[in-house]
Amino acid sequence: MTGPRPVVLSGPSGAGKSTLLKMLLKDYGNVFGFSVSHTTRQPRVGEVNGKEYHFVTREQMQKEIDAGEFIEHAEFSGNIYGTSKAAVEAVQARNQICVLDIDLQGVKNIKKTDLKPIYISVRAPSIEVLEKRLRDRRTESEESLQKRLNAARIDMELSNEPGLFDLIIVNNDLQKAYSELKEILAEEIQKIQDSKKS
Ligand SMILES: Nc1ncnc2c1ncn2[C@@H]1O[C@H](COP(=O)(O)OP(=O)(O)OP(=O)(O)O)[C@@H](O)[C@H]1O
Ligand SMILES: Nc1nc2c(ncn2[C@@H]2O[C@H](COP(=O)(O)O)[C@@H](O)[C@H]2O)c(=O)[nH]1
Known about the structure:
Elements: E1 7-10, H1 17-27, E2 32-34, E3 37-39, E4 53-55, H2 58-66, E5 70-76, E6 79-84, H3 85-93, E7 97-101, H4 104-110, E8 118-123, H5 127-137, H6 142-158, E9 167-170, H7 174-197
Parallel strand pairs: 1-7, 1-8, 2-7, 3-4, 8-9
Antiparallel strand pairs: 3-6, 5-6
Helix pairs in contact: 5-6
The protein binds adenosine-5'-triphosphate and the ligand Nc1nc2c(ncn2[C@@H]2O[C@H](COP(=O)(O)O)[C@@H](O)[C@H]2O)c(=O)[nH]1.
């Protein structure tokens, strides 16, 4: 894998990863590119195939995994999610910083590759706040919400492993969280902006 150092955003469902990522892409659309994952979950209202995810069947995804087309994949809340080699390469070919939004299993699997990204953990201030955010988002059934909260409890326990993340952002105040994210990425942003000028 070549090009600028990728960025991994991880953390419990509802912590605010996509929200922070959207802010980053809005402000630095030319600098960052989103690694569009594959998933077997159903699209949410407003989600577009090929933009938020490549929405595929379990059979299709398993076939592509078996063919070695994925850097990592994981089962999360009853569905498979995965990062294809093509998704990362497409961003790197544009000389953009590739941003991956992946769960903790994905982080552990990416650690075994030569991708060498900056690892950032995004967390909510508490499980109660996380639950409120997920409920207010109105994307999950009660069953899915409970599965995600269980996964979040496990994530919150396991993600404290020393050295796993380069930065932990507790996303309480959104603007403050975004400032912290921009701060750790400032050097990489500058490098890309300079290279695009020359
Ligand atoms: N700092 C914040 N304060 C209040 N609400 C927030 C904050 N950050 C994000 N939210 C809201 O919380 C909800 C969950 O955020 P978001 O969808 O970005 O989480 P996520 O980590 O990407 O979740 P998933 O992993 O399920 O995709 C959204 O409705 C978002 O608008
Ligand atoms: N290991 C991977 N995890 C992924 C990938 N794409 C997304 N995710 C994670 O799944 C959950 C749920 O996402 P949602 O869109 O259904 O809310 C969340 O934690 C994502 O970070 C992936 O390619 N690999």
